[in-house]
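In the current project phase, work has continued on tokenised descriptions of protein folds. One protein thus recorded appears below exactly as we store it.

——
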Amino acid sequence: MTARRAALFGSARAGSRHRVAKSRFAGTPVETEVLRGKSKRPLYVTSPGITLETAKGLIRNMHCRDRLPTLLTAVDRACRGLDPVSNPE
């Protein structure tokens, strides 16, 4: 985990991390898929410690009607060394 990611997420033990992925990894269960807005491409959610349905509901209700919520877009940009609040367009 990079220092920037650790600052954003805190340090988490392996296996106990909450994750949202844009791509499906081998072995990812179909049940982890979350569709947002009008997107036909799902996000994939795992979240130890809370039920899968609760985690999916939290992602569905995050700000922004697009596939990727505003907060996750900012985190993604920050992890890439970009300004997390500037408009990418």
Observations:
- The chain has one domain: 3-79.
- The chain has a mean pLDDT of 81.
- Helices lie at 3-9, 52-60, 70-79.
- The first helix runs from residue 3 to 9.
